[in-house]
Amino acid sequence: MNFARLRPDNFTLAIAAAVIVASVLPATGTVAVVLGGAVKVAIALLFFMHGAKISRDAVVASLLHWRLHLLILASTFVLFPLLGLSIRAWMPGLPPEMSAGIVYLAILPSTVQSSIAFTSIARGNVAGAVCAASLSNFLGIFLTPILAGVVLHASGVTISGRAIVGIFEQLLLPFALGQMLQRWVGPWIRRNAKVLSLFDRGSILGVVYLAFGEAVLGGIWHTVTAGMAVLLIAVLALLLGVVLTTTTVVARLFGFSKEDEITIVMCGSKKSLASGIPMATILFAGLDMGLLVLPLMIFHQMQLMVCAILAQKYAER
């Protein structure tokens, strides 16, 4: 086993650095307002570029292998939310914002880059992973706000009409504009993938810094004790373990090939930090963002480490 794959990636280290900086030097006053506006513009531009990059042909092609994609979508938008709601019901001792953060994590779409990368390492159906991850992210733009309005109400979080309008203005509208201008803008974005990556990661780091800076000013490190952090990690590990086991067993019961099984496991077990953080800034405006996104950031690194091990195991077959 290559233990080097377990080392946190540079982006995860950057997120940790943003949390540390926010804990020591949180943004306040005019700096917070200016930085918040810049992050909103970056997020809108990010979704515009995603709209221009994702081919309509890829979305249509992904529908052809409907059994594969239906199972992945069921894991992402049915199994995960049910487990998230179960955790909230069984563990009422968690802070309300952290409990809502676990439920929010559960309703997010799958990742794109890591799902495809691990499928490739494991020698799975890479083409299916590309289509499945793209379809999950495309549908997640619509499904996640809807699910948030339904399931998070039970966690004491109210999704206002203003938040839905914000999702439309800041995410859906730029994405739609990107699709409309894809013919002219898409080729340039595909040739300059680093630009998209820059906005992708830069906007997330900005949101993490602002969210934790605000949380620090609100006393997050007095709220989250060491015992509570250990409990959260254990709960998220259990969540990931149940999903990985379920997707593996169901894929085999339905007679999928080993390559398709790998794709189902790798795509059906991930949750997107890239989509989750920007949506959270709109859906949870005015709430304690630090506790809300903490489960997502922990789960992000956990899924990478565990799936790195699984990918190596599959590759050795």
Question: Please, could you describe this protein's structure?
Answer:
The chain has 317 residues and is mainly alpha-helical. It has one domain (8-315): Na+/H+ antiporter like fold (Up-down Bundle), CATH 1.20.1530. It has helices spanning 10-24, 29-53, 56-62, 66-90, 96-106, 113-121, 126-151, 161-180, 182-191, 193-217, 220-223, 226-253, 258-268, 273-283, 289-315. α6 packs antiparallel against α7 (126-151), α6 (113-121) runs antiparallel to α13 (258-268) and α10 packs across α15. The longest helix has 28 residues, at 226-253. The chain is globular, with a radius of gyration of 19 Å.
Write the layout of secondary structure elements.
Layout: H1 10-24, H2 29-53, H3 56-62, H4 66-90, H5 96-106, H6 113-121, H7 126-151, H8 161-180, H9 182-191, H10 193-217, H11 220-223, H12 226-253, H13 258-268, H14 273-283, H15 289-315
